[in-house]
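Readers of this paper often ask what the protein records in our data store actually look like. Such a record has a labelled line for the sequence and another for the backbone structure tokens. Nothing more is needed to write down the fold, since each code stands for a local backbone conformation. The remainder of this section carries one protein's record, kept here as part of the documentation.
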Amino acid sequence: MEAFFLVGPTASGKTAVAVELAKSGGMEIVSADSMLVYSGMNIGTAKPSSDEQKGVRHWCIDIASPGREFSVGDYRLAALDALRDISGRNRTVMVAGGTGLYIKSLTHGLSVLPKANVKLRLELEDILATKGLAALQNMLHETAPDRFEALDDKANPRRVIRAIELARSGATAPSTGWNNKTSHGTLTGLRINKELLDRRIRHRVACMYDKGLLDEVKQLTATGPLSATATAAIGYAEAIECIKGLITVEEAMERTVVRTRQLAKRQMTWFRGQASVDWIDVDANMSGCDIAAAVKESWRRNGPAEVSE
């Protein structure tokens, strides 16, 4: 199977451009965003609006409850089902998003890794809650130094915990989880300068609070506990602290801006090191039509990328 890819950091304008391209080209969009999978988490994730989704079929959005942990493996299965459905109807597929692990799971495939050990997972989460991330990092470094060094985000507690689980399972280290198959094709990405990106992030965060992010979070938490992934999501973690009275609205907004900026930086670092991307430099003078035209030209030059089944 093949698909056209549109990638880039958060707040780079992917959603609007993807919708415009899909409408003009008769395409269907498979989301590659780790937060859009959660139903009810709409405002804080900048999920495509009902108007944006009107007339364009979107996949891998609203497919999990906020109380459920959703892995890259879960995403790959859902995305492949969508891709097969779309391709089977001879429709053109666009994969759009900024979650690099989701995208790489499609371009490279995933190795079969051991399932999580529930008992061990609970023990590790208890260590995280009582002793902090450093205790888990030290545990991994002492027991599996190669796996520790292979981690691309050592500050991510979920990845540290999973690495310890894999080490305890006896899986070959360091294990990336990727198949050895070489992917084929170049992705198309939107790149934006730091100043413009910062303005867009601040505008987005202000709009999130204007649209009622705090009310959305209150409704979500009233129906049951959120998963660790959902609770830690940028914007939601800060909103939860604000609702609890631990920080002010202004502090919550500023922290969200900072974390979003940090996320965008990590995304760009990941794409530079992990994927072949034909970058389109977006500036404030470019219209949506200009950007869409540049994406079409990139797709024309490079063609679709191969999806690993």
